[in-house]
């Protein structure tokens, strides 16, 4: 594995606050949405969303998602991104404490707040979700996908 590519991919993940989450409903209709995220080891990506949001409902039908993390403020033709294929779902009671710790740590580092189970368990309006990367890619100078393992 090219260590420069791994370092570059990690830098992209670390520098950005939002990922674009691509989901599809039961009929295959796509939906993309930006979500603020935290990550664990560049393999697990966590966010909070309303369970009734389009992307959250789509996860109930299809756990497979696509993710892209990129800086939308760079000049035209200079953008670089990390592309991820993953499986996603709502975080259950078993992983909730650890997930909230990870999410809170990043939230606080960006001026956000602490998150607790009271914020993501019914009757709260939000839930905690996790996507676990299956494949990760960067694009080379010819726009070819280059597999990377950011872990």
Question: Would you mind describing this structure in some detail?
Answer:
A hairpin with a 5-residue loop joins strand 1 (18-24) and strand 2 (30-36). The mean pLDDT is 95. The longest helix is centred in the C-terminal third of the chain and has 17 residues, at 93-109. The protein has helices spanning 3-15, 54-61, 93-109, 117-120; strands spanning 18-24, 30-36, 38-40, 44-49, 64-70, 81-90, 127-139, 145-148. The protein has one domain: Electron Transport, Fmn-binding Protein, Chain A (Pnp Oxidase, Chain A), CATH 2.30.110.10. The N and C termini lie close together (11 Å). It contains four helices and eight strands, in the order αββββαββααββ. The protein has 151 residues and is α+β, with helices and mostly antiparallel strands.
Task: Provide key terms for this protein.
151 residues, eight-stranded antiparallel β-sheet, alpha+beta, 4 helices, Pnp Oxidase, Chain A, globular
Summarize the structure.
By secondary structure, this protein is of the alpha+beta class. The chain contains 4 helices and 8 strands; from the N terminus they run αββββαββααββ. The chain has helices spanning 3-15, 54-61, 93-109, 117-120; strands spanning 18-24, 30-36, 38-40, 44-49, 64-70, 81-90, 127-139, 145-148.
């Amino acid at each position: 594995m090219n260590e420069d590519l791994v370092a570059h991919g990690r830098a992209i993940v670390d520098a950005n606050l939002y990922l674009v989450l691509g989901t599809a409903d039961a009929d295959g209709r796509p939906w993309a949405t930006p979500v603020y995220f935290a990550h664990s080891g560049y393999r697990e990506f966590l966010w909070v969303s309303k369970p009734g949001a389009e992307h959250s409902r789509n996860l109930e039908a299809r756990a497979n998602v696509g993710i892209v993390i990129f800086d939308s403020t760079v000049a035209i033709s200079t953008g670089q991104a990390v592309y991820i294929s993953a499986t996603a779902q709502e975080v259950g009671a078993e992983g909730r404490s650890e997930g909230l710790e990870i999410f809170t740590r990043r939230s606080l580092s960006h001026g956000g707040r602490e998150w607790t189970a009271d914020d993501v368990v019914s009757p709260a309006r939000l839930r905690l979700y996790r996507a676990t990367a299956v494949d990760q890619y960067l694009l080379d100078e010819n726009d070819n996908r280059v597999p990377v393992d950011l872990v």
